Structure formats: structure tokens, C-alpha cells
Amino acid sequence: LADTDDWTMTPHTFEAVVASYGFDDLGLTLVGANVQRWQGVDTDYENVTNNSWVDTGDSSTNMLAALYASDNIEAGAWYYDVSKAAKAVYVDASVGFEFSEDMGLSLSLQYLNESEEDSSGIDGSISGAMVEGALMGIDLSVAYNFTDVDNGKSLFEGFGGGCSYTNMFVTTAGGFNDGTYGDASSYSLSLGYDISVINLYGAYAEFEADDIGTGKGDKSEMDLVATYTYNDGLADVSLGYVKVKDKIDSANSFNRIQFFANYNF
Questions:
Q1: pLDDT computed for residue 265 by the predictor
Q2: How far apart are CA 54 and CA 71, in angstroms?
């Protein structure tokens, strides 16, 4: 549930203690962590006085995980105790099939369940499925997510970006579930293509949420990105376009153009 979410100028970063131990013969890795603080575009850092970081709670956040990987299967289970917010269990699994060097297919499933702590109002679940295919440099992905919450409850998608398969640059599968709307469903379609040092990426998603008396949610988003990498991957430039359309309230619709130049050292 910790993600860099680096599509903006302020990637998420964390202050944490992490310990891991691997059983190489079994393909199993155990991980434990204590997260004290995080910083980024989703932390409301601009509202914090004299501190660009946001504490994750009086007792911080504790995490335990078990990860498994083999030649064509990857699976994991995570448990989070986010102080004064929620207890969360997240599991996912994917199986891949490689037909040749230029062709492959993978199937993935995910499930997130959260229960509130200290009357935080966070309570619900997100489930999802995704199919990804690769053919001669072209990557295609189709995904679906369903969120299940009680009226007036919200969902916590994690520390930056969220893990749901249909999440876009701005809109996320659990974003509707802030207590304003009821259960929601979303689907996305994405396409990527590599041409030597140039990567082209496009994605489209639809998000719909039930009416619980305050209005129905219906929103779409389109993301387009072109990236050029040079100096053997040490640097890159990218141009991106984001179009968010709120089909209920047009005042919440907007377009955005982004340009980034990155140098790694």
C-alpha cells in the first residue's frame, strides 16, 4: 500500500524501518516494517506547519507481509495496522505465460479489506481482476475493480497512488468512496509501445458509483504519455496529457499537460 505515485513533481517518499528474510529455495520472502512518516502529493503536506512530512499516527503504521515468486506465479499477502485509521489486509496473485520472447500473457487478481479504528469511517473492500498481454513490444492491459462500502463510509487506498488495477493518474477506484457515494465499479484499458528509446503509453478508464442520496458518481479519465530515454537510462524526458471528465458535475472536469525532465545520479 506504499507507492511512489511519481506522475507529479512530488513523488512519495517514506521514513521507515524495514526487515526482510528470504527462503530462496521456497521462493518465499517475509517482510516486516514500521512506517513513521510519509511525504508527497497525497499527504496534504502543504497544510502541515514547519514540517513537510505527515505522521502516519501516534503509534505509526505496522506492516507484515509474505511474498511468493516462482517462474510464472507471483503472490503476496500484506497486513497493515494504520494507527487511528484502519486495519487492512491486502492479497494479490498473478500467473504468467510466456509463449515466446515477443509474446506473453498474465492474469491477476487482488482484494483489499479494511476495518475502521477509532471511528475513522474507513470500512469496506476493493476487489479486482486484470489481464495483460505483450506482443512484439506492444503491451495491452484490461482491468476491472469493484468497491464495496456501507453508506457514509470511505476507503483508504494506501500511502500514495493506491494499488487498484484501474487506478489512473488522477482518478482511483476507491476515490469515489469518500462517504459521498455508495458501491462503485470501474474498468480501464491501457496500451503501451516501445520503439527503441521511446515509450508511448495511453489509458482510458470509466468510474461509476451508486447514489446514496447525495448524487451518483460518473467520471472518466484519459492519460497519454510519451517518454524519451537517453544516456543508457540515466536521463529521460516525458510529455503527458490528462483529461478528466465528470459526467455529473462539469465543474470538476479538467485537462492537464505535463512535461518532465529527469536525471538520475
A1: 82
A2: 39
Contact in structure between 175 and 5 (CB atoms under 8 Å): no
Confidence at residue 56, expressed as pLDDT on a 0 to 100 scale: 64
| Nearest alpha carbon to residue 223 among 108, 141, 133 | 141
- Cβ–Cβ under 8 Å, residues 162 and 104: no
Following DSSP, what letter does each residue of the chain receive, concatenated? Answer: -B---TTSSS--EEEEEEEEEEETTTTEEEEEEEEEEEESTTTTGGGSTT-SSEE--TT-EEEEEEEEE-SSEEEEEEEEEETTTEEEEEEEEEEEEEEETTEEEEEEEEEEEEEESTT--B-EEEEEEEEEEEETTEEEEEEEEEEEE-TT-B----BSS---TT--SS--TTTTTBTTS--EEEEEEEEEEEETTEEEEEEEEEEEE--SSS--EEEEEEEEEEEEEETTTTEEEEEEEEEEEESS-GGG-EEEEEEEEEE--
Lowest mean pLDDT among 33-42, 75-84, 180-189: 33-42
Each residue's pLDDT tens digit, 117-151: 888 888 899 999 999 999 988 999 999 999 998 77
